[in-house]
UniProtKB/TrEMBL annotation:
Protein name: 22712_t:CDS:1
Organism domain of life: Eukaryota
Species annotation: Cetraspora pellucida
Length: 56
């Protein structure tokens, strides 16, 4: 009986770790996405005045 309890506990633990990793990965990917977005917006803000200056 004790071995069954241990294996059940480890399965639950594995599921929790897996869920934690999945959540962490989601937030990590979101962080990358937003940093890339911010970088792109920053580049656009720099480039737009240059383009408007060139077009005049």
């Amino acid at each position: 009986h004790s071995s069954g309890l241990i294996s059940g506990t480890s399965e639950t633990l594995n599921q929790k770790v897996l869920a934690c990793l999945t959540t962490t990965t989601k937030y990590y990917n979101l962080g990358i996405y937003f940093s890339e977005l911010a970088f792109t917006v920053g580049l656009l803000k720099i480039q737009l005045p240059l383009y408007s200056g060139l077009s005049k």
